[in-house]
């Protein structure tokens, strides 16, 4: 016991001696600003403590040799690398085979401060805004910049082959049609790429585009590939860095309307997609196009003349009175959005139709507002699916 106490006292004594000895012996370190502690430019304002050369030699104390420089150049009673004469980079004097020579030092560079703002994401309160409303009129639709439809997603299979359109509804989730995935749950997600901000299928604009892999594909469990009932699917997207969509002029979310919202027949809405060419056109239009279509009442669309009982309560029809424009092959999965109080709300997903722009055969769309609950359950995003931004009656 006594021995232990003595040992402890001795130990603390020797530590104190060591500490005070070190205090006495060490040279005062010159104070430097943060910037002076690393290499910026030629390092003439470097005031850090590197004291070894690139060759691995120890620097010698500056005061041991005559030189014309003083403390304003950072020199003094120490051996740290300095650049008083604006050489290439800080240096010091070393002893090499009985000679005193200059050697350059390897001072770590100042990394340029990367104070990136956190990537902006659309929230449920900023959906459905677009920065442009330009369009260029062509027969049966209009070319349009992606900024007019920033929620439009382009889904590719094996990089090259355009598969379907889609709609960004939250930074990580795209709504599309279930019928786009003919392999159903067997679909190989590794084959799929999703782009936002794409104006043309065959062109790349790195400034506008965002590219994603597909992390999850959720097909509606009651999707029927004969009747196209419940033709809806969700994709969870992931960028290379592991993030989701970043808000920009060319990539935004569309709003979801509240559950079971219906707009009256005759209301004009907008469809957008990379297809919309004539039926059987052997290639897609390549450029994003848009068209205005009018909602057709459920009763009208269920008439024999139109589609009869092929129309379920999970579908609705829209077209133009003169049947000139319609969604078509290649538009599948893309959005039908309607403007309400200055915001764009996703009401429909391009699903099917008998030909394209054929008389009495309007386009048929998945009734998105029947799926708010399903989307909330699958994505875990109850706020996005409440329809918060929809004006209260
Ligand atoms: C993309 O396709 C359009 C129409 O097919 C064509 O005019 C254009 O030159 C193509 N662009 C590129 C980069 O291949
Ligand atoms: C699809 O719907 C048809 C008609 O209602 C029905 O006969 C068929 O069994 C359904 N298929 C599936 C896979 O549910």
TrEMBL record:
PROSITE patterns to which the protein is assigned, alphabetical: KRINGLE_1, KRINGLE_2, TRYPSIN_DOM, TRYPSIN_HIS, TRYPSIN_SER
GO MF annotations, alphabetized: serine-type endopeptidase activity
Positions of the Kringle domain: 37-110
Residue ranges constituting the Peptidase S1 domain according to the UniProt record: 138-380
Signal peptide span: 1-18
GO cellular component: extracellular space
Protein localization: Secreted, Extracellular space
Keywords annotated in UniProt: Disulfide bond, EGF-like domain, Hydrolase, Kringle, Plasminogen activation, Protease, Secreted, Serine protease, Signal, Zymogen
Taxonomy, superkingdom: Eukaryota
Key word Lyase present: no
InterPro entries reported for this sequence: Kringle, Kringle-like, Kringle_CS, Kringle_sf, Peptidase_S1_PA, Peptidase_S1_PA_chymotrypsin, Peptidase_S1A, Serine_Proteases_S1
Main location: secreted
Primary enzyme class: hydrolase
Name of the protein in question: trypsin
Native source species: Sparus aurata (Gilthead sea bream)
């Amino acid at each position: 016991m006594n021995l232990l106490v003595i040992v402890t006292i001795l130990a603390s004594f020797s530590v104190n001696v060591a500490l005070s000895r070190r205090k006495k012996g060490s040279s005062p370190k010159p104070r430097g600003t943060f910037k002076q502690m690393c290499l910026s430019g030629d390092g003439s304002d470097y005031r850090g403590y590197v004291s070894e050369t690139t060759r691995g030699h120890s620097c010698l104390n500056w005061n041991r040799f005559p030189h014309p420089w003083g403390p304003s150049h950072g020199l003094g009673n120490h051996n740290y690398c300095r650049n008083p004469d604006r050489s290439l980079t800080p240096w010091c004097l070393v002893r090499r085979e009985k000679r005193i020579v200059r050697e350059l030092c390897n001072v770590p560079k100042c990394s340029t401060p990367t104070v990136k703002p956190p990537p902006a994401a659309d929230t449920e309160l900023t959906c459905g805004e677009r920065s442009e409303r330009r369009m260029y009129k062509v027969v049966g639709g209009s070319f349009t910049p992606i900024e007019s439809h920033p929620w439009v997603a382009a889904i590719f299979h094996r990089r090259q082959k355009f598969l379907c359109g889609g709609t960004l509804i939250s930074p990580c989730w795209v709504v599309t049609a279930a019928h786009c995935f003919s392999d159903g749950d067997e679909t190989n997600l590794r084959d799929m790429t999703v782009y936002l901000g794409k104006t043309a299928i065959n062109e790349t604009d790195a400034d506008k585009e965002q590219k994603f892999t597909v992390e999850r594909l959720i097909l509606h469990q009651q999707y029927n590939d004969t009747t196209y009932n419940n033709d809806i699917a969700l994709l969870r997207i992931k960028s290379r860095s592991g993030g989701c969509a970043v808000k920009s002029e060319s990539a935004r979310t569309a709003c979801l309307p509240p559950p079971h919202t219906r707009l009256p027949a005759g209301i004009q809405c907008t469809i957008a997609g990379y297809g919309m060419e004539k039926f059987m056109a052997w290639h897609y239009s390549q450029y994003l196009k848009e068209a205005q279509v009018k909602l057709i009442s459920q009763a009208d669309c269920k008439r024999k003349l139109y589609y009869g009982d092929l129309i379920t309560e999970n579908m609705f029809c829209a077209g133009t009175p003169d049947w000139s424009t319609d969604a078509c092959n290649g538009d599948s999965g893309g959005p039908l959005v309607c403007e309400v109080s200055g915001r764009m709300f996703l009401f429909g997903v391009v699903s099917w139709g008998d030909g394209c722009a054929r008389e009495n055969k309007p386009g048929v769309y998945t009734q998105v507002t029947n799926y708010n609950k399903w989307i909330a359950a699958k994505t875990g995003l109850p706020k996005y699916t409440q329809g918060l931004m929809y004006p209260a009656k």
